Amino acid sequence: MLRAKRFHSSDFIFVVLIVILITSIFLFMSNDQSQKQQRQLVERAVYNSYVSALAQVKSNASLLYTLQYHNEAILPLIEKANNNINAPQVLASIKQSLYEKLHPLFRSSLQYFEHQQVYLSNGESLLTLQKFTEPSNKNNVDNTTLRKVLQSKEASFGLSLKNGRYLYSYFFPVFNRNNSFIAVVEIAMPLTAMKQILTATSEVKSQYLLAKRPLLSTQQKAKLYQETAFSDAFYIGINENKSNFALGQLSAANLAQLKQSLSLAEETKLMQLKRFSVNTRIAGQDGIAVFMPVHDTRGYAVGGVFTFSPMMKLYISQSDRYAITVILLLMLLLTLAYAIRKCMALSRLQLRYQCFLDGLPFPIFVKGFNNEYIVANKAFYRFFNLTRAQLLDKKQSAAIEPEALTMSIADINQAGGCIEVEPEKLKENDPSSYKIFYYANSQLSKEMIGYIGYIKDISDRKSLNQSLKSSVFDQTQFMDLLPLGVRIFNLQGRTTFVNKVLAQLSGHQVDDLLDTDCDALFTCLQCNKSVCPLLKTKNTEQVHRIETIKYTATGEARTYEVIQHPYYSTEKQIQGIIEITRDITVDKSLLDKNYELMLTDELTGLLNHRGIVSAGENYFRLSQRANKPFFALYIDVIGMTKANLDHGEAEGDQLLISFAKILTDTFRETDLVARIGGDEFVILMTDSEYHITDTGLFPRLDNNVKKFNSSSIRKSRLVIDTGIVEYKKENHTDLLSLINDAEQLVYEHSIKRTLG
Fold first, then answer.
1. Which of 351, 379, 385 has its CA nearest to residue 365?
2. Which of 255, 294, 505, 653 has its CA 20 to 30 A from that of 67?
3. What stretches in the chain show pLDDT beneath 50?
4. Confidence (pLDDT) at 173
């Protein structure tokens, strides 16, 4: 299956530039300066909205005062009441008349100004109009502002506390026609009404933070805010409808979350009642919180209002707008340039593709999903003697197209994306053999869009295959005539050829041995990758010879000589391994017998001098490398010459045989015991825990000799001289030097025994 995938540097550069430009736009849109400007803009908007709302409320209160209290029907009653301050019955009558005239007007304005009160010139309350009837508490009424208006005869407004509720109060002095001061009118709006005005046209939420301490006291006014906890919603929402109060209200949890998000500098501003704004997140919404201080009617800061605006519209400064406009123009120009370049590149690619196909020496064609020709090369046109117009014409191509060139995409996909077809006859009057190769063509999304096919002349290959078959047949006959077993392996270690002699040697059939791994059948007894001659021959490309034991198919173990030869191609590259096998079981048995006779004492069956030197060298080298204890015992049997003379050589031989038996019983199987002369013996002990206490005595051996002499019925007795030497690196350079030192000790003990 062909799937073209190319990397275009221009595409990469275009993508990188577009990413850079888009990133630049986002950086311009989200840089800290823009966010700061946006926050300042929101802060100004909230402040202006707050100031505008206060101005609107003040204007409405002034208008309400003018329309409701400063008219011909109300002023005479207020003036009359002021003139009869000391006449309670008259005041009561005037109050009732005033109530009857003002109450209908109050009902139309109580939606916002739900508390209205008239005070006489001496500060006494004449009439109170309010939405809810509340018990009056003189200790909970802001008289300071009232006294201020009574003294200054000027209007005043601000935040005040009345009967446990925070209100925006507006105090207006009342004058008669003679411009004489006669009363004060208070028009108050609860904070909830102010919040409704602020949030009427937006999703802005706010929360007032005010002191619980009543605003009536002016003592310690500088510490009023700092030393008093912020109020909860009770002082703002008392006597208010819960649904109306919750409208535009920040919940306690949201307010707590907002306070926790403040930095140290912002908390300082909050405690100092300074205006500030901050970006924050409340209830999963990003927005801007603005804090503004709130003042009472005396102008003292008594708290503030937090306003949260979740509608964070993206703010971009004028300079950033120009930069973004330039970037967008660059993106447009870059996209146009890229599109033009891609069109030109596509045209060049089609031309190169056609030139590439025309340069191929064999016929090749491309078909679409509907089995229609898309393109072909010049070799294809010459092969079928067609023109490009005939090929691309659906009707003409269907009429002259050979049946072998018709293939369905489903068949190609079912075959794994590639299929080969060898038609019996592709062209008229053409004896050549051809093979057609089909490959599925797909896009990067793996969607099949057609297939590619090419025609190959395989006449020469067929002829070559026939020649190879004949050559292989001749080779097989030649190999079967050889008296040696022959097996050929490829570089993967699998058998590619086996002759009849090897099959006879192994006991397996030729077919069973073919296409198997070297360690599957008829393998070496000591098969191991570290010593495998097949791997060594493959890696070193040298001949290797081994003698090994193999089991035949019947389970018989036999010894074989195996030679591994590398064989090469005409380019002198190793192609595989030729294994030649010869059965040497009989020859090996004779050689082993001769070797055993060379190393063994014929009389005692112990090692002879050659045998102990040959075997002891390995023990000696091991002790040198591993620094293990190593001992040599030299033993001389005394009186053997006299025993032979007195009792005959047969008696002497039996005595030596018995002593050899004592030695094999005394020492370990790992110790080497040898007879190196007529009456001289040597024992080599390796890795022994023996400690020499007497260089002329080996206790265990002496005890066994004594037992033999006490229980033996032979005429001669065993008498031995012993010399024991431990290997010392500084004294012994080889095994013979160690044995010679032990022999020297025996000689010295013999002299001492003779002299003693």
1. 379
2. 294
3. 1-5, 7, 139-140, 212-245
4. 92
- Pairing relationship of beta strands 181-190 and 205-210 according to DSSP bridges: unpaired
The pLDDT of residue 740? 92
Helix or strand or coil: residue 83?
helix
CATH for the stretch 362-457: 3.30.450.20
Q: What is the pLDDT of residue 228?
A: 37
pLDDT value, residue 470: 83
* Residue 480 vs residues 153, 361, 473: alpha-carbon distances, Å: 140, 45, 11
From CA 576, how far away is CA 558, in angstroms rounded? Answer: 26
Tell me, rounded to whole angstroms, the distance of Cα 319 from its chain centroid: 43
Query: Is the CATH code 3.50.50.60 the one for domain 463-590?
Result: no
Contacts of 544 (CB under 8 A, 6+ apart): 533, 536, 537, 563, 564
Element (H, E) at 181: strand 181-190
How confident is the model at residue 548, as a pLDDT? 83
Q: Where in the chain is the domain with CATH 3.30.450.20?
A: 362-457, 463-590
Give yes or no for a contact between 495 and 515, defined as CB atoms under 8 angstroms apart.
yes
Q: Token digits for 148? A: 């201020």
CB contact at 8 A, 93 and 130: no
Rg (CA), the chain: 60
Cα(594)–Cα(312) distance, integer angstroms: 106
The boundaries of every CATH 3.30.70.270 domain in the chain are: 600-755
Q: Which of 586, 614, 619 is nearest to 600 (CA)?
A: 614
Fold of 600-755: Alpha-Beta Plaits (3.30.70)
* Half-sphere exposure at residue 347, Cβ-oriented, CA atoms within 13 angstroms: 5
Task: Read off the amino acid at residue 41.
Answer: L
Q: Cα–Cα distance between 596 and 586 in angstroms, integer?
A: 16
Per-residue confidence (pLDDT) for residue 724, from 0 to 100: 93
Instruction: Say which DSSP state 603 is in.
Output: T
The tokens describing 736, both together, are 């013979």
CA 173 – CA 118 distance, rounded (Å): 10
Phi-psi region at 103: left, alpha or beta (left = phi > 0; alpha = psi -120 to 50): alpha
Burial of 229 (0-12, 13-18, 19+ CB in 10 A): exposed
pLDDT at 569: 86
CATH class of 195-309: alpha beta
